[in-house]
Design brief:
- It comes from Photobacterium jeanii.
- Keywords: DNA-binding, Transcription, Transcription regulation.
- Pfam families: HTH_1, LysR_substrate.
- Residues 1-59 form the HTH lysR-type domain.
- GO terms for molecular function: DNA-binding transcription factor activity; transcription cis-regulatory region binding.
- Strands 3, 4, 5, 6, 9, 10 and 11 form a seven-stranded mixed β-sheet that branches.
- With 297 residues, this protein is an alpha/beta fold.
- It folds into two domains: 4-87, Orthogonal Bundle (Arc Repressor Mutant, subunit A), CATH 1.10.10.10; 88-297, D-Maltodextrin-Binding Protein, domain 2 (3-Layer(aba) Sandwich).
- The longest helix is centred in the first third of the chain and has 28 residues, at 60-87.
- It is 44% helix and 20% strand.
């Protein structure tokens, strides 16, 4: 039966270029590395290296064994990391609730950091309306939720104000709005507007979201963006959604006469958590990362 030390000796010798270099890298003598590889060859009953030259060279079967040895060592590293994470009581999974209006890009950097630090914790992201998110949080279906501010928050949840989402006025490059230096209110009111249904129903955003006389709606912000790209109307959309599309030329920003200085429209964001919940290390870390977006008052 072979040992991991023999696999390590083989892989290191190949990658270091010689048994002596492998010994220096592993803090062992040349003879120790040579003996380990010799014993490995005896166990497998194959010759891994051609030793007829100054430096040993892998034989064809040695090339195949080397590739399998690297795979086994990687699997062993993953197993050890997984065991270590469970020894630290890391969560099996996290349930994250996201408001239907919230752009995923708002927290993707924080999510990438979490994934790198806790690779063995599964992440499940679901979307619901803000009022539903609060109920799911209280019932234990969610570990945390991120929503656009809806005004009153139930006393059953804790919340932190995060950096706001910035909304831009956008239209298709083919729209007459895109050719206007400043779009007057009357023209905008007479041009079809595309809105997220939940944005209209949100007690706070609904007040500002509806402008035009004719409104079309979609359930998803990305669907709204697609409809605008098709020149079916104009919309207020989160910058996380518009920025790349504007750069690609599928959407255009425009300025209105009621906001000639083009001051960005902002919607406040709440991070919701269940009070008294005992958080594991992954959830605590994610909350800390998101708190980095908190608003200083």
């Amino acid at each position: 039966m072979y040992h991991l030390d023999q696999l390590i000796a083989l892989v290191t010798a190949v990658e270091a270029g010689s048994f002596s270099a492998a010994g220096r890298q592993l803090g062992k003598g040349h003879s120790t590395i040579s003996t380990s590889i010799n014993n490995f060859e005896l166990t497998l009953d194959v010759q891994l290296f051609d030793r007829s030259q100054k430096y040993p060279v892998l034989t064809p079967i040695g090339e195949q064994i080397y590739a399998q040895a690297k795979l086994i060592l990687r699997q062993n590293e993953r197993m050890m990391a997984f065991s270590a994470s469970k020894a630290k009581f890391e969560e099996e999974s996290l349930e994250i609730g996201l408001d239907t209006i919230m752009p995923f890009g708002y927290f993707e950097v924080e999510l990438e950091k979490l994934a790198a630090e806790y690779p063995h914790t599964e992440i499940h992201v679901s979307r619901s309306r803000g009022d539903s998110l609060q109920h799911q949080l209280v019932s234990g279906e969610l570990d945390l939720a991120i929503q656009l501010n809806r005004g009153a928050v139930t006393e059953s949840v804790d919340f932190v104000d995060l950096q706001p989402v910035i909304f831009d006025c956008v239209c298709s490059p083919d729209s007459e709005l895109a050719d206007m230096t400043v779009v007057d209110s009357e023209t905008l009111m007479m041009t079809r507007q595309i809105c997220s249904r939940d944005m209209l129903e949100n007690p706070l955003t609904g007040i500002k979201a509806k402008f035009s006389n004719e409104i079309w709606t979609a359930a998803d912000m990305h669907d709204v963006a697609r409809m605008v790209e098709q020149d079916l109307g104009w919309a207020y959309l989160p910058r996380e959604i518009t920025q790349e599309r504007v750069a690609m030329g599928t959407l255009s920003n425009f300025i209105t006469d009621y906001n000639p200085d083009n001051i960005p429209a902002r919607c406040e964001v709440d991070l919701l958590t269940a009070p008294g919940k005992v958080n594991g290390p992954a959830l605590s870390r994610f909350i800390d990362l998101l708190r980095g977006k908190s608003v200083t008052k």
